[in-house]
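To: structure subgroup
Subject: Chain for Friday's discussion

All,

I'm putting the inputs and outputs inline so they're searchable in the archive.
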Amino acid sequence: QSEERYALAVAGSNEGIFDWDLVSDRVYVSYRAQELFGLPRGELWRPRRDWRHILAFHPDDAPRLHDAIKAHIEGGASTYDVEFRIVMPGGGVRWFRQRGIALRDPSGKAYRMVGSIGDVTLRRQAEEELKAMERKLRQAQRLEAMGTLAGGIAHDFNNILGAILGYGEM
């Protein structure tokens, strides 16, 4: 029942899972995670270097991802939670969120890291669209303020010209 419950929970979350044996440096990447990465179903357990060659991490995100993993394994961060981009096999770029924890021996040394992988591309795109709309709104507000200012200056200038023209006619 416990295994069935676990399998149903993972299937319902629509996320993949990973399990990294730090001692042997082999990584388990679930079929769902492989699908999320745009890969055909393949071996579940592979050496970490093989996964690093298969997955094309975005060059801007690779150092940050490495630093987050290192910080967690060394005990500098209590949890591991990072978002990064993968260049998909077709050439597109997708965002992923990877969360996990390191299992430690009695001395505190990490020997295993497990967690989940989820596609957050739609959320990131929505956030980017919201930021773009906010920028456009701020630009429109600035233009409106400039228009109001220009209108006020024109009104004041018209009043001064009216006085000058009135004196000129007298």
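Points worth raising on Friday:
The two ends are 102 Å apart (CA to CA).
The beta strands are 16-21, 26-29, 45-47, 56-57, 80-87, 93-104, 110-119.

D.
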